[in-house]
Amino acid sequence: QVQLVESGGGLVQPGGSLRLSCAASTSIFSIYTMGWFRQAPGKQRELVATITGDGNTNYADSVKGRFTISRNNAKSTVYLQMNSLKPEDTAVYYCNAGRRAMNFWGKGTLVTVSS
């Protein structure tokens, strides 16, 4: 089992920034592709960004240019820097660790973008 614990969510005003962190409880963190997903009320869970063990990234079109995913393998932690936040970014954000058929999920952290 890989346990994932997200932190950094909260309430922020439009145009503001937040940085989410996800700490993983595995000694082989570097072999996992890490991702951030989000789910807004009444909507499907969607992929926000992914990063492979060697640092290749991918982003949803809706967040390109605003969000940055990164990882620190020594700390077994993945980050999501979110800038220029919009109300449409409001969602529960979930951390994911995946490798082939194995997937692990955090419990999520709520991000609310509102005035």
Question: How would you summarize this macromolecular structure in one to three sentences?
Answer:
It contains no helices and eleven strands. It is an all-beta fold. Strands 2, 4, 5, 6, 9, 10 and 11 form a seven-stranded mixed sheet that branches. The protein has a four-stranded antiparallel sheet with strand order 1-3-8-7, with no helix packed on it.
Helices and strands, in order, run as EEEEEEEEEEE
Give the helix proportion (percent range): under 10%
Strand percentage lies at: over 45%
Low-confidence blocks of residues: none
Q: Which structural category do the helix and sheet elements fall into? A: mainly beta
Largest sheet: 7 strands, mixed
Average predicted confidence as pLDDT: 97
Number of E-type strands: 11
How many helical elements? 0
Which geometry do the CA atoms define?
globular
Radius of gyration over C-alpha positions, nearest whole angstrom: 13 Å
**Distance N to C terminus:** 39 Å
List keywords for this structure.
115 residues, mainly beta, globular, 7-stranded mixed beta sheet, 11 strands
